[in-house]
Amino acid sequence: MLSAQTIAPVFSYCMLPTLFISHGGGPWPWLDGPLRRNFDVLERSLAGTAREIGKPKAILSISGHWEEPQFTVMSGENPPMIYDYSGFPEHTYRIKYAAPGSPQVAARVRELLRGAGIEAREDSRRGFDHGTYTPLAVMYPDAGVPVLQLSLKEGYDPGEHLAAGRALAPLRDEEVLVMASGLSYHNLRQFGPGARTASKAFDEWLTQTLVRSAPRERVERLLQWTNAPAARQAHPQEDHLVPLMVAVGAAEKDRAEVIYHQDDLMGGVSASSYRFG
Questions:
Q1: Distance CA 225, CA 217 (A)
Q2: Would you say residue 6 has pLDDT above 60?
Q3: Which CATH class is domain 13-276?
Q4: Sign of dihedral through CA atoms 239, 82, 104, 180?
Q5: Neighbour count for residue 151 (Cβ, 10 Å)
Q6: Alpha-carbon Rg of the chain, whole angstroms?
Q7: CA distance linking residue 192 with residue 40, whole number of Å
């Protein structure tokens, strides 16, 4: 007679987590010198996170650098590059992150959103912006995992983006990594030492909200994020915060943990990344 130990499966399947990544500045993985060194802690976090997760079937990136009147999913087979930054060395406008797209996963994303009553469209010409290829160049440098992006929806309504995340939760069981990419602090007029007080206050609130609050409270606090300490100093425009809502929605009841933190980014910014599940 077979024992329980004999018939037990030889491996166990774990649902993929979701991520909110503070992606850093511009094309930093392709730079040298002091600016590049600002991101050493972030680089270690991104590489370590990828090792822990392994290679997913595909990566769905929600970047703070793309918004549309309605949710839009990239559906091209070979997405081009978008160099959406300025003032960097000439070679950074020729870099390539040659990951394939995934029209099949794009169709699935659209199906899930529409199934939840959320209007969505596809864009076969959209390329990768640096909110996607900058972190992925560190996480998956061989560009061997299919990648696609989902836009933000204009207006930045946190409830709509939480709802989109809830609709996309089944992707986690389908080996698709949901990666929200922004920055926990994004005020380009107040970066460096001058950002120390505001970024620290908002970062502490964000970690309290995501890591130490019960799921229902977490959602309520995110819906009212503008009431947080230094909220509008940290995010005069919330394009780099709203991707977080999708990651939370797709893992609404899961535990969160801090996977990256530093208090001296660019000389004074407190910044963090989070994993859910």
A1: 12
A2: no
A3: alpha beta
A4: negative
A5: 21
A6: 19
A7: 16
Residue 192, pLDDT score:
82
Residue 197 structure tokens:
């007080």
Q: What are phi and psi of 273, to 5 degrees?
A: -130, 160
Specify the residue for token string 């990651």.
247
Boundaries of every domain in the chain: 13-276
CA distance 277 to 254: 5
Q: Tokens 């979701």 map to which residue?
A: 18
Give the mean model confidence (pLDDT) for residues 186-213: 94
What is the spatial distance between Cα 215 and Cα 14, in angstroms, rounded to a whole number?
20
In terms of pTM, does the model score above 0.85? Answer: yes
Instruction: Identify which of 187, 164, 167, 194 has the alpha carbon closest to the alpha carbon of residue 234.
Output: 187
Per residue in 35-57, pLDDT tens? 899 999 999 999 999 999 999 99
DSSP result, 213-273: S-HHHHHHHHHTGGGSTTHHHH-SSGGGTTHHHHHHHTTTTS-EEEEEEEEEETTTEEEEE
Instruction: State pLDDT tens for residues 90-122.
Output: 999 999 999 999 999 999 999 999 999 999 999
Neighbour-count burial for 166-193, b at 16+ CB within 10 Å, e otherwise = bbbbebbeeebbbbbbbbbbbbeebbee
Which pair of structure tokens corresponds to residue 34? 């002091």
Residue 53, H or E segment: helix 40-53
If residue 129 lies in a helix (H) or strand (E), which one and from where to where?
A: none
Q: Could you tell me the strand order of the sheet in which 256-265 lies?
A: 120-123, 71-74, 147-153, 58-68, 176-182, 18-22, 269-276, 256-265
How far apart, in whole angstroms, are the C-alpha atoms of residue 272 and residue 183?
8
CA-closest candidate to residue 164, choices 178, 182, 144: 178
